[in-house]
């Protein structure tokens, strides 16, 4: 994608700590924008569980139409205890992912300098890979149902839907991503011994795609042993690709081996760029700490860096990550979840001022 210097960003702070960390992400974007000559226009909406309580829906009907021409969506967190998860999820997040055809969910798993992994003796050189998850089809489908409720014969059926087009495009994304990386390696996650229709199909498509990329090394594991390898051999991986369900599992396990949930970023990507992609931290609205000004803003700020890179501003993205590492190295600037005492705004300000000083 070619870089423009005027970016229109839709911001959705959402619920809970989303409203505290999104402003820090914007503060950092403004700072990096001044340094790299990028002008941001932020168009903010209050779509959230609060909006739902007032209007009976998570966002206005056709609400997404106003953002179709935007460069990206910058989201905080959505979800609140009194509102059922399926309402917030199917009322806001899933419509955005599906309407904007964000069929790749991308999570970097990278141990930042200054953070520690729960895995003993593992440093930044051991943990540096991406999880690529299929984001719109597969196991998370509405096809299926329940029969004979309340009887001895009661049963539930849930269908998975894997299309050649859907599988091929996410595999292609993974192979192209591997090409941009020094190790040039793709690992596929399946479970073809237990799930005998969809998973062998995925394996076949993986083999076909591999033939197009002779420069990329490949490996394949069943999801169960792959989870074990994430913990025991994180240094084996470069780009790991999986279906909606397996990718979902790996994309939580990955950030867990790279330290605190408060710092992990993610991207919902529309690789063709015909609609905006969406960038959001991995964590949720964290009701237990919301409103206290103590949430870690780094997951949001790192997501802003992914957004910059996606929009063609790799230098600006690198500057944000370098500033995050500088700030984390100083225990006084860390938030509580990382063992420090700094508040959300203090941590965000520190990162912005390192960028401005650079
Ligand atoms: P969701 O289901 O919306 O993904 P969740 O209910 O699984 O979210 P979170 O809201 O992410 O979970 O919170 C999980 C725990 O992590 C909570 O104890 C929360 O306080 C903590 N946490 C999450 N994000 C942060 C953050 N940015 N800074 C500090 N602690 C955080
Ligand atoms: Mg939750």
From TrEMBL:
<dbReference type="Pfam" id="PF00180">
    <property type="entry name" value="Iso_dh"/>
</dbReference>
<dbReference type="InterPro" id="IPR050501">
    <property type="entry name" value="ICDH/IPMDH"/>
</dbReference>
<keyword id="KW-0456">Lyase</keyword>
<dbReference type="GO" id="GO:0046553">
    <property type="term" value="F:D-malate dehydrogenase (decarboxylating) (NAD+) activity"/>
</dbReference>
<dbReference type="GO" id="GO:0050319">
    <property type="term" value="F:tartrate decarboxylase activity"/>
</dbReference>
<comment type="similarity">
    <text>Belongs to the isocitrate and isopropylmalate dehydrogenases family.</text>
</comment>
<dbReference type="GO" id="GO:0051287">
    <property type="term" value="F:NAD binding"/>
</dbReference>
<keyword id="KW-0479">Metal-binding</keyword>
<dbReference type="InterPro" id="IPR011829">
    <property type="entry name" value="TTC_DH"/>
</dbReference>
<protein>
    <recommendedName>
        <fullName>D-malate dehydrogenase [decarboxylating]</fullName>
        <ecNumber>1.1.1.83</ecNumber>
        <ecNumber>1.1.1.93</ecNumber>
        <ecNumber>4.1.1.73</ecNumber>
    </recommendedName>
</protein>
<keyword id="KW-0464">Manganese</keyword>
<feature type="domain" description="Isopropylmalate dehydrogenase-like">
    <location>
        <begin position="8"/>
        <end position="351"/>
    </location>
</feature>
<dbReference type="InterPro" id="IPR019818">
    <property type="entry name" value="IsoCit/isopropylmalate_DH_CS"/>
</dbReference>
<dbReference type="GO" id="GO:0000287">
    <property type="term" value="F:magnesium ion binding"/>
</dbReference>
<keyword id="KW-0560">Oxidoreductase</keyword>
<keyword id="KW-0520">NAD</keyword>
<comment type="function">
    <text>Has multiple catalytic activities. Apart from catalyzing the oxidation of (+)-tartrate to oxaloglycolate, also converts meso-tartrate to D-glycerate and catalyzes the oxidative decarboxylation of D-malate to pyruvate.</text>
</comment>
<dbReference type="InterPro" id="IPR024084">
    <property type="entry name" value="IsoPropMal-DH-like_dom"/>
</dbReference>
<dbReference type="GO" id="GO:0009027">
    <property type="term" value="F:tartrate dehydrogenase activity"/>
</dbReference>
<comment type="pathway">
    <text>Carbohydrate acid metabolism; tartrate degradation; 2-hydroxy-3-oxosuccinate from meso-tartrate: step 1/1.</text>
</comment>
<comment type="pathway">
    <text>Carbohydrate acid metabolism; tartrate degradation; D-glycerate from L-tartrate: step 1/1.</text>
</comment>
